[in-house]
Every structure is written in C-alpha cells, then in structure tokens.
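Hi R.,

Here's the chain you asked about this morning:
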Amino acid sequence: MTKIRRSGLVLAILPAATVLLPFPDCISPGEDILMPRKAHAGPPSAAAPERTVPPARNPEIAVEEEYNIARRRGTAEALELFIARHPEGALAERARAELLKMKR
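And the predicted structure, written out as tokens:
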C-alpha cells in the first residue's frame, strides 16, 4: 500500500515538474534564463545617465506665481502670508504697498 501511495505522489508531481522546469534543448549553453543579458561590471559608460528627477523650477518664476495667486485672492491674509514667506525683493515691496492700500 505504501508503494502505491509513493508512485501516486510521483505521478502527481511529475506534470508540475515538467511545467516548472525549462526544457534543456530550448536553452543554449551558457545562457541564463532569468537574466536576458549579462551584467557589466566594468567602468561606467560615457553615456549620460537617465534622468529620474525633473529639472528644478526657476525660483523667481515660482515666487511671481505665488504673488499673483495672493493678489487674485484679494485678501490681506494672502498678501501677509506672501510677505512672510518672501520678505525681500521687489514683489514683497509691491505686496506691502497693496496691503497698505487695502487697510486704508
């Protein structure tokens, strides 16, 4: 009875093993089935690396956009926040002048 169970187990595993194991005649000698090409461990190539991060924005344009948003809101709080974030520069002076006009 033990021999019947063992042979049944082997017969049950055999189809799965043929599906999971590659066919030897389909693989050329020296070819790795998990990696399509071999890794190169030499010196880095002269080609530029691929960019993974977008280029930085121009900070002057970002400040100007923030100033325009504060002006569109039209509130003293928006202009005060802009002045607090960017206390120096021509746009801060313009925001202060607009804030004085609002408060009069």
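The longest helix spans residues 2-20.

Let me know if you need anything else.
M.
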